[in-house]
Design goal:
The chain has 136 residues and is α+β, with helices and mostly antiparallel strands. Helix 2 links the parallel strand 4 and strand 5. The radius of gyration is 15 Å and the shape is globular. GO terms for molecular function: nucleic acid binding. It holds the Pfam family rve. This is Integrase catalytic domain-containing protein.
């Protein structure tokens, strides 16, 4: 899981939280007005309710991901929370690459309407899923 900082919208959204299934490369994302630990936990719980509890959760060391509530939720549900070093972004390379892909596709889709990005997140995710290499 990771965040992308995007231009603030009229509705107050300025972050996109992203999660990727490392096996299937399937991305999930949600616009956020703030990046709090509570927002992250709500997003993660919604993913778990839709797709099941992952065996492993990979995140950076930021406080929004590394806190007692997230630790407790992962522990109770059998998820191993692996925290990657910020100084080694390649340790979470798939997520970092997907962040760039999503950001680039949003920019190309929006052009002059860059403050309307939350309306286009699902379209961009759909486009990414349609164009996955057949080997995945």
């Amino acid at each position: 899981m990771d965040f992308i900082k995007l231009p603030e919208t009229e509705d107050g959204y300025n972050y996109l939280i992203i999660a990727i299934n490392h096996m299937t490369k399937w991305p999930e994302a949600q616009p956020l007005k703030s990046k709090t630990a509570a927002d992250v936990l709500v997003f993660f719980k919604s993913l778990c309710m839709r797709f099941g509890y992952p065996q492993v959760l990979i995140t950076d060391q930021v406080r929004e991901f590394c806190n007692k509530d997230m630790d407790k939720f992962c522990s109770v549900n059998g998820t191993n929370h692996r925290v990657m070093s910020a100084s080694r972004p390649q340790s979470n390379g798939l997520t970092k690459r997907m962040n760039q892909v999503i950001k680039n596709k949003l920019q190309k889709t929006l052009e002059a309407r860059h403050k309307e990005w939350p309306k286009f997140v699902n379209r961009v995710l759909y486009s990414i899923c349609l164009h996955q290499p057949r080997s995945t």
